[in-house]
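Input structure tokens:
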């Protein structure tokens, strides 16, 4: 039983440890409540001494060790700043859930899962692995699945015909060909592009940096953008916008919707027109194996891509694609002959991938 003693109005407790007598404040004025807390803390301290781990280790201590081991450092800084002084052993999964919004008040459940629950769990479990080996699991917040619909080549042709600028035209094509997210596309600079090799490096992504490959058509669309000085940010003249002319994804949406309206096509946000359509085009329409498609599009796993992004074609479209006289209908109804040629180049590259994928199958 932990021994209580009082200083002023607050009760303290003491417990013997191998390195001496430990005293600690309960912060409580009620003797009954202080005794209950003291017993709980004394049990934790004795367990720490018995198992040989540092009961005083803080979240900041654990986080710094986690980073020193070369682990992913994204989202760690806010956790250290807000919760760094808390004791690691006193951190309960449900407390993390209840206080996640302290770090990001306006964040969605998906963002809280990604930027709070996942990294906190990783930090704690990494620290425990060096001690008694136990692990914790923090229940994720429920996320309502968003409806993501793919578009097709005809949609992209009509969008390009009414696009507001060469930068927007190239960005739409870039997200379609590479499955880049809109924030990733906004961050692309001329230094990330190698026109001769036809590659674009995405340095800051949701998962890890990746090298994307682009078609000859897109390479020629990027060439004039690279030849001009980047636009200065209107809010901060010392900064420059990305290669496509945008500082952030928020600057894209209004113009994007007006292009859809002008072109007479259904509104598809950049994510659907790009990343969702990439997955659907390769896997569903072209038969590329999911492993190859997921690798090219930067998905963490083929399962994530298939469950979330690859959208099955309606039944009539499947039948028409297999048995119809014109299996390349979408590519042939583009508005101009030039656009038809460009689209054929892109589809030919996908066909090459399809052939390679088929040859690798057992």
């Amino acid at each position: 039983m932990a021994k209580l003693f009082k200083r002023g109005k607050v009760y303290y407790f003491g417990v013997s440890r191998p390195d001496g007598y430990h005293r600690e404040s309960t912060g409580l004025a009620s003797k009954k409540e202080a005794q209950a807390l003291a017993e709980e803390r004394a049990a934790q301290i004795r367990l720490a001494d018995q198992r040989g781990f540092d009961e005083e280790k803080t979240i900041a201590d654990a986080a710094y060790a986690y980073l020193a081991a070369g682990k992913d450092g994204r989202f760690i800084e806010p956790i250290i700043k807000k919760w760094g002084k808390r004791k690691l052993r006193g951190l309960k999964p449900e407390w993390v859930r209840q206080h996640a919004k302290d770090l990001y008040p306006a964040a969605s459940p998906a963002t809280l899962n990604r930027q709070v629950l996942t990294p906190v769990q990783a930090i704690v479990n990494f620290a425990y692995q060096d001690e008694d080996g136990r692990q914790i699991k923090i229940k994720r917040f429920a996320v309502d699945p968003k409806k993501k619909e793919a578009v097709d080549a005809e949609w992209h042709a009509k969008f390009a015909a009414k696009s507001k600028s060469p930068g927007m035209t190239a960005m739409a094509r870039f997200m379609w060909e590479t499955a880049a997210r809109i924030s990733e596309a906004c961050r692309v600079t001329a230094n990330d592009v190698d026109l001769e090799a036809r590659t674009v490096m995405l340095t800051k992504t949701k998962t890890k940096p990746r090298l994307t490959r682009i078609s000859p058509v897109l390479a020629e669309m990027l060439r004039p953008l690279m030849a001009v000085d980047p636009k200065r940010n209107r809010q901060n003249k010392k900064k420059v916008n990305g290669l496509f002319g945008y500082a952030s994804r928020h600057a894209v949406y209004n113009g994007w919707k007006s292009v859809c309206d002008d072109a007479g096509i259904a509104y598809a946000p950049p994510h659907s027109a790009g990343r969702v359509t990439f997955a659907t085009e390769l896997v569903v329409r072209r038969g590329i194996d999911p492993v190859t498609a997921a690798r090219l599009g930067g998905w963490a796993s083929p399962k994530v891509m298939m469950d979330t992004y690859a959208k099955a074609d309606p039944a009539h479209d499947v039948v028409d694609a297999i048995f119809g006289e014109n299996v390349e209908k979408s590519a042939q109804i583009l508005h101009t002959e030039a656009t038809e040629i460009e689209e054929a180049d892109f589809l030919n590259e996908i066909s090459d991938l399809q052939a390679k994928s088929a040859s690798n199958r057992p």
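The chain has three domains: 3-51, 59-129, 153-359. The first strand starts at residue 3 and ends at 7.
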